[in-house]
Amino acid sequence: MKISSLQDLLLDQLQDLYDAENQLVKALPKMAKAALSSELRQAFEHHLHQTQGHVERLERVFEKLGSKAKRKTCQAMKGLVEEGEELVNAKPDANVLDAGLIGAAQKVEHYEMAGYGTVQTWARQLGQEEVARLLQQTLAEEEQTDEKLTQIAEDMVNLQAVGAASR
Amino acid sequence: MKISSLQDLLLDQLQDLYDAENQLVKALPKMAKAALSSELRQAFEHHLHQTQGHVERLERVFEKLGSKAKRKTCQAMKGLVEEGEELVNAKPDANVLDAGLIGAAQKVEHYEMAGYGTVQTWARQLGQEEVARLLQQTLAEEEQTDEKLTQIAEDMVNLQAVGAASR
Description:
0% strand; homodimer
């Protein structure tokens, strides 16, 4: 796609995010299955449900912009998913695996936070308020997921500290 | 590297970040040169200076962990830098280029924010308080850069709104 206007740039980045979300719908069940902690597994399962919603929301966004929902391979997400798979295949101790899965998932969430933050700004710039509102909803859910993952990681640190203190 | 302990995982991710920061030291001057807005150019130049500091800070971190500073190719950063280059080569209108450069840079910042957030948590978990403090300093600078870029993007939207109202 030739990018000459802000509308072109917006569509290009929406196609990137649409591909990223679709990749994530496939990756999250594997991450949930690999997780040891039930809290982490539930967080991945909950986010899978949200991610399916993000795919549909993007389809509404494309429709509102008079464009077809199209995927453009998101290389960054591909790299992040591969990194997560490598970790699972390396079969480290379960606690180490969970820590690594949280790290991988937070990179994914931050990629999406940056992406949605950008496209909702461009949508506003183009006067597409309804599109901006939809993208903002997804952004808020990605931020919540990131906070939830931080909290699970912090709990792991604290649990370990309690364990160390009682030894 | 075989990953079996949290220390292995920490070193693995530090090598990823060390490669990412080094890639960024090469990419930022090109992004600064391509930017139309002087505010954006200055932001990239300021962040180049910070990024050189992040490379050195990581070298101190490796030293404190008794390990050699080593790069492990960060595929995600490679993808993000290529995306930025493609945009510059597409030669869109200058305002569109600036908007796209900000978007690309915010993805880079978010990648790093996720990465540093994770490694500083692991360093604390391993009782490496000094290492965690160093990593936290870099994390704070990445967050400030992201906020600065958001502000520049918002200024662009507002400027455009003022322009539209006065027409």
